[in-house]
Amino acid sequence: MDIHKPKAAHNWREFAIEIATIICGIVIALGLEQLVEAVHRGQEVAEAKQRLSVELGTLLGQAEFRARASACVERRLDELAAVVGTAAKSGRLPPMGEPGFPSVFVWGSGAWQSAASGQTVAHLSPDEVIGYSSAYKFIGLVDDANNRAEGSVWTTLYGLAGPGRPFDAADAAKYRQAISEARYLDSIIGGMGVRAHQALDAYHIPFNRNRYNKVLSRSVESTSICQPIATTTPSDYGAAPARDFIASARAHPLRPQGIDR
Q1: Is 89 exposed, middle or buried (0-12, 13-18, 19+ CB in 10 A)?
Q2: φ, ψ of residue 162 in degrees (nearest 5)
Q3: C-beta neighbour count of 185 within 10 angstroms
Q4: Are 150 and 128 in contact (CB under 8 A)?
Q5: What is the residue-level pLDDT of the chain in tens, covering all 261 positions?
Q6: Helices 12-90 and 110-117: crossing angle, nearest 10°?
Q7: Do residues 107 and 139 lie in contact, with contact meaning Cβ atoms separated by under 8 Å?
């Protein structure tokens, strides 16, 4: 096999041409590498936005569902306040069934956490960063109120359900405080959910409407908080919300949701 050695430059002009050729080759290679990188990064950002869109569609649907149920929550709390007021005057709590409780949701933010921990956020526009971060900040406040504080206060209110018992001023103060806390938490959940939606709208950030509508396809009126207080009175005290959750979870297993186009 013949090996052709490169010809040595005979003068400065030929030498300059060879150097320029080498430099051009390097510049072209670097440019192509950056182009490939930019295309890849663009695909990653587009995929991240699609995941965020799906996640936010679900979250905003849940938030709107809770906002629509607020009238039922207020009506139920009015009923419980009336029960407490009557019992405080008579000194006895009447028999009462379980009062129902507001819907509890999982307020997942995995897509946003993944985008924030990686490089995706660095490639979003300043307005997009503000819009996304604001929306998820409001959703975080909803999560705190719905999954932490609200469960505790409605567990207290379930203490009214039972066969009837003596009721004193301390009992009345306890349940009135719980009713006030429940009103506050419901207002925070509904209001912060509205704020999350407004944050996206303000910065023109879209979300997946299919997911949003899918959550809202369920009737608010079918939830326990919108139904009348249960007619069956517990034989003793100690009822609690969500006592059938284990059976419900087994009956409705989680399935991969995919991405709605």
Answers
A1: exposed
A2: 165, -175
A3: 22
A4: no
A5: 455 555 555 666 666 667 777 777 676 766 655 554 544 465 778 899 999 999 999 999 999 999 999 999 999 999 999 999 999 999 999 999 999 999 999 999 999 999 988 778 888 999 999 999 999 999 999 999 998 899 999 999 999 999 999 999 999 999 999 999 999 999 999 999 999 999 999 999 999 999 999 999 999 999 999 999 999 999 999 999 988 889 888 988 877 665 444
A6: 150
A7: yes
